Amino acid sequence: MGVVGPAIAQQAAQPMQRVEITGSSIKRVAKEGALPVQTITLDTIQKAGVTNAEQLMRLVSANGTGADNMTSGNNVFGADADRTSGGASFASLRGLGPNATLVLLNGRRMGNNGGSGKAVDLNSIPLAAIARVEILKDGASAIYGTDAIGGVVNFILKTDYRGLEASTTLNGTEAGGGMERRYSLLGGVGDLESDGWNVMASVTRDVNDQLSSNQRDFANGYQPWRGLSPDTTGTPYANLLTGAGSALGTGFRMPGDATTYLQANLLSLQGNCDSVPGMSQYASELWTNVTPITRTKFSCAYDYGGDYVMTFPVERTTGVSRGTFKLNADHRVFVELLGSRTETTAQLTPLQISTTLAAGNAYPVGGPHYQNLSSYIPSFDATKPILYKWRATPIGNRTQDVTLDNYRALVALEGTLGGKYDYKLGLSKSGSKAQVDLVDGYAWTDKLYAALGTGIINPWVGAGQSQTQQAMDLIESTKFRGRLQHGRTTMTQLDGAISGEVFDLPAGAVSMAAGFDLRKETYSFAQVVDATKILLAPGNANLDQATRYIRAVYAEALVPVIKDLEVQLAIRKDNYSLIGATTNPKVAFRYQPTERLLFRGSASKGFLAPSFTQLYAGRLSQELPNGVIDQEGCARNPGNPDFCAIPRLDYNTGGNPGLRPETSKQGTLGIVAEPFRNFSMSLDWWAINIRDRILNRTPQVVLQNWQYLQQYIVRDQATGVIDHVEAGWINAAGLKTRGVDVGLRYDGTYSGYKYAAVLDGTYMDSFKFAEFEGQDYKEQVSQFNTRDVYLRWKHSASVTVSKGNWSALLLQRYASGYNDQVPNGGKSGFPAGFDPRVHHYTKYDVSATYTGFKNTTLTVGIQNLFDEEPPFTAHNVDEVVGAGWDPRVADPRGRALSFNLKYKFF
Asked: Which of 197, 234, 630, 895 has the fewest C-beta atoms lying within 10 Å of its C-beta?
């Protein structure tokens, strides 16, 4: 782990074995490579207690700190929410998002997630069958095409494996919850060299238990003394609302108090909000400028942010097989099959309901649970129905079963021509299917509202009380259970390349490669039922099967300019149906003036094609509510209601067929040195500039930024009045990011002990982002964000020691602190206990491995050795998952014991 580049890191490879390094199509002696590639071996993965690819990516400092995992990614709010990828995890090198990181299996593409269609699901990778993972920390569009702006993650499977081994891993937490189990079987027969063939197969079963926020004390959204308190009055014991024609009228006053109040709760009036689990007195002092005290002084709040499921229960089965057949000394053919199924149960908190007279769901006069507050509120009118806001816990947690199926089949031919030129040719078909079933907690809106209007259901159930059986039967009759949506992606690929030395220069031989890549990609998404009729069900527009064809050719050359200077030249042209063609070059160099010193660098262009969802998701025509202001038009026509108080404004949202690809210019400059024996170090500076960033934006955002987004505001040419707004996916401005990757390694032997100390770190100097062309770029490093947090420094460091049958590993993962979200934007002042910084997070893992028993490898480890809790953060739980902590940065499991047993039968 933490290998700093083929020039130093891959010296352990066989001296004259020609291999293909990630980021190049030319095979060469492994130690000659000059790419900023980090390599993580299976041995390190197992000793570190890593059981899935999501945990693996947390060890890569260049990977982003964002909502691309199963915990935080499935609960993101706002325009960036992804409700179709439940159960999936993604890579995001440089924090540029999953779409900008290319994930490969043995150097070839895989099908994207069938739910969102946006990127490869890491959970579909069979970790038990891999030999190593190579992470290219450089743009590679000139070699691989789209998706490779941030870099490439290449999972390399074992080949020519012989024998049969079984292994099991158990990983349990000290505090309970989140138990992880893995069972795998790997077998192979045939020797490729002596028999001319080899067949390998592996199957793995993972079962992970649920971990809930109520199982960890730090997951607490009610800490007002530190600036954290839920901004919601949707409580299990309902708050009463004001409104014309309701029992509270349009407002009420308390005896001897001239203030008009807008909400009331019996428990609050009694000073008893905390008698119901998860509830507390509303901390109006934190939200004065959002929800004035006139509304909340007599309200209760509910810590639904502290009631989330931290990690979902998951069951996953992955299988891979590979058969390799040697046709003769120069040619071999292989067949590769990969399949996986992931079943996840995702849970969200119960429905929140605000009743209205128009909807017919107000609590009726004369109902058996009518709550008369006349003794507290003199103006309370018990002859009128009650409006209320309720967290409907009797309906149950909103529960979804998400099933993801992934597959890939590959037939390939590779070898050498004339003993001089290497070639490869492959035909593959891959795909992914996702389906979402609602199993509890969802109800038909009209049926539920009608049931609430009967008064049989009690929204004021106190501690120790429960709904009547009649009420529960009525609730059950309103529920929806069944298939909600499903999506599917497929990819058919024919690719080939040839490489070799073509002629000699005075400094050495010139190597060249040329290749082609033909792909057919499809995506479809169907909403099985109308989600608008199911209360708070996740809904997306249907996308009838969309198909696109990609034709690409590329060429690469390695040119020895002088004895110690080598230049890499690469260029690739991709032609996308309906999008157009793009050509992306790359130039890189490697200069090694001495055996112990190497300089390297690169400059390239890249591109990211819009996804199917971004292009073709159904366009939905909707209306904004009354009173919309056309800021530009109103300034020119003051007082004109057509501009200053638009009664109805149409807008379109969803896919945008006119999207342009994102484009990038990027470069690296690095040094690799071995200043003294057994110690090596690397420093690689990198920079990436992206234009035409594709973002999902609401019509309100478009109108607020009218001076930058005129093309999305469509006006009547005669009157200048807005006809409609084009929202949804648009090409925004871009971003600029730069930083330094650091790699250190020291190894050697002492008194029979072998040891190695390794560090892989990333210093992010800047990440500036502008949403729209013309806006100033704003610095994001070390600042709170609702999607990604761009940390100044991250690293993974390890020390390994081995002697005889024993080996030990100590692993440290570090994430620097950042500026916290300011409660209520600072409008209500700062609580005395508020800390403006989220502290750094450091986690230590340790393991010991023993191989002294015949054919047996035993590894025992402790993750989070010092039981480090996630650092406190006061972010608003409405914007980022995690009440009092951040799942993007820290591990919620706490101290855990892992046990791995591997037995090799032969």
From this structure: 895
Q: Helices then strands (H, E): number in the chain?
A: 12, 46
pLDDT tens, position by position, 685-701: 999 999 999 988 888 88
Residues 263 and 239: beta-carbon distance below 8 Å? yes
Residue 634 β-bridge partners: none
pLDDT tens per residue across span 707-760:
888 888 999 989 999 999 888 888 888 899 999 999 999 999 999 999 999 999
Asked whether residue 426 falls in the same domain as residue 538, the answer is yes
DSSP labels, 38-78? EEEEHHHHHHTT--SHHHHHTT-TTB--BS-STTTGGG--S
Q: What gap in Å lies between CA 893 and CA 216, rounded to an integer? A: 8
Q: What is the pLDDT of residue 102?
A: 92
For the chain, the 3-state helix, strand and coil shares in percent, each to the nearest 5, are: 15, 45, 40
Judgement on whether residues 288 and 321 belong to the same structural domain of the protein? no
Domain contains 574: yes
- Each residue of 817-861: pLDDT tens digit? 999 988 777 766 677 778 899 999 999 999 999 999 999 999 999
Question: Are 553 and 588 in a shared domain?
Answer: yes
Q: Does residue 660 sit in the same domain as residue 794? A: yes
Q: What is the DSSP-derived secondary structure letter of residue 609?
A: P
Return the pLDDT at 828: 65
Structure tokens belonging to residue 538? 């996740």
Q: Which domain holds residue 385?
A: 231-302+352-391+443-466
Q: Which residue type sits at 544?
A: D
Residues 564 and 588 in one domain: yes
Same domain, 415 and 564: yes
Q: What is the pTM of this model?
A: 0.90
Residues 186 and 257 in one domain: no
Exposure of 415 in the CB half-sphere (CA atoms within 13 A)? 16
Is residue 636 situated within a structural domain?
A: no
